[in-house]
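Recap for those who missed Tuesday's class. We walked through two folding examples back to back. For each one, the amino acid string is listed first and its predicted structure tokens come directly after. Nothing is annotated here on purpose, so try labeling regions yourself before you check the end of the notes.
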Amino acid sequence: MDWELLQQNADVLVPVGLASDEDLVRARTVLLGLQGFYAMYMMHGLFMPDTPGLAALRDLIDSWGMGPFLGHMVSLNPSPRQFAEGLTVCLEPLFDQLYEALMAQLVQDPYIFRIPGDDTGAAGFMETWMSTLREQTPCRAGDRAPLQAVAEERRAVELAGHQQYTASSVPESHHPCSTRRR
């Protein structure tokens, strides 16, 4: 096996090194744009309210067959290597074309965070989303059992003489089951 040839062909820095400054700036724009679009694509699975604009963006990504691929390519908090790999991928015309198609869809329906019939706009969208998330939380108002379990874990750790940061060290007001406002 010619390992040098494999390393040469697998090296993500070669295409980046060969690209012009303009190509790199455009690839960065495409990469960062695709990160945002992919985040909206995935948030639908996290109970984000659906709107016609968000559905159109998801449908466009799916019609290109790019949902799973973006899942592998896009990192919302990339390491330097992941950023370089994403930048290399975004040098390809296909991803520029996808980005342009998504931007055109966004221009066509810019109110992606507006629920039809709700004139509060993005604020109403977020309130609906947060309400949905609260409803999906396994804790209900008055249900203190999870907090009791956390308190028991804290006591057990203290008795064992360990000083470590655990979920039990989170103040009650920040616990997802807390009824206190932050």
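Example two. Treat it independently of the first, because the proteins are unrelated.
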Amino acid sequence: MPRERKATTLSVTESPDRPLEAIRAALGAGGHDLGAILVNRLTADSVHVLVAFDPDGAQSWNREVQHRAYTETLTAAGWRPLNLELLVLLTPVPLDADSGTFTATWAIEVAGEDSEAVAEQARERQLDPAVTDSTWTVTDHLGRPRTVYVQDPDLS
């Protein structure tokens, strides 16, 4: 027996979860049936978003096929989803960032035995004026990461 779906309404004081709305919109624009897709955060304050094929709550042989299609659609829309076959995981997806807000992450591989010493060495390399280029992962307010290569224009 199919389960009854309950609509979620927002009170006047609640604000919509813009990243979840964007994920749903991307899936809808990709031609997926939004009535058969669950898009939720793992918990209310989680940066982990789960996307799952759920036609009327029934078990489906088609789940793996649908999750592959969702993964392709979300990848094309700029996210980096992880297809776990039973569900699709997106992380990190910010809770409440404004449009135009980005997180930039610089990464470097540093050998060492102590995490504090390695962090100090990475920071020294980051501030070294001889380092003229770097690679950053820039994530927008909806949780879509992009790799950006930056080169010092004065030294190129």
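Answers for example two:
The beta strands are 37-41, 49-53, 82-83, 88-90, 103-106, 133-139, 145-151.
The radius of gyration is 20 Å.
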